């Protein structure tokens, strides 16, 4: 039965109901009933979302490591907490989606200029104070101990994702 051209699909009217309907079709093996173009679009969107989250978390991690390194007199438990939180969340994200692991170094290098831009704004330091390229290896990004400072060091556990 053909739908009227001007009748909106369930996907357009009630996203949650559409998701439940598609899951029901899959579980029942009714593959011909699937809204294939929209299912494919949603699956691709989920993959993009995970990649986007990884990039955002790496940028925030790098930003706070730069601030920690370049402004030792302003180090705070808040910065330390943000560094630890981003490491944990990146590790969880990569544990849940191991296919993200091989691209970590590339993503870190790609987001580094944005982290520097934010560091310049937040610290008030001159751009020349920051290296042109990412100064951290993956191991350094994810090591538990922060560069020497007055705050307590984190206990050593998993080193990196």
SS summary, helix count:
6
Helix percentage: 55-70%
Shape descriptor? elongated
Which percent band covers the strand fraction?
under 5%
- Overall radius of gyration: 22 Å
Q: N-to-C SSE series?
A: HHHHHH
As residue ranges, the low-confidence spans are: none
Counted beta strands:
0
Distance between the termini: 51 Å
Report the structural category. Answer: mainly alpha
Mean pLDDT: 89
How many strands, which pairing sense, and closed or not: the largest β-sheet? none
What does this structure look like?
The chain has 161 residues and is mostly helical. The chain has a domain at 50-142. The protein has six helices and no strands. The chain has helices at 10-13, 15-28, 36-70, 77-96, 104-123, 138-142. The chain is elongated. The model has no long low-confidence stretch (mean pLDDT 89).
Quick synopsis:
With 161 residues, this protein is mainly alpha-helical.
Provide key terms for this protein.
single chain; 161 residues; mainly alpha
List the helices and strands and how they pair.
Blueprint: H1 10-13, H2 15-28, H3 36-70, H4 77-96, H5 104-123, H6 138-142
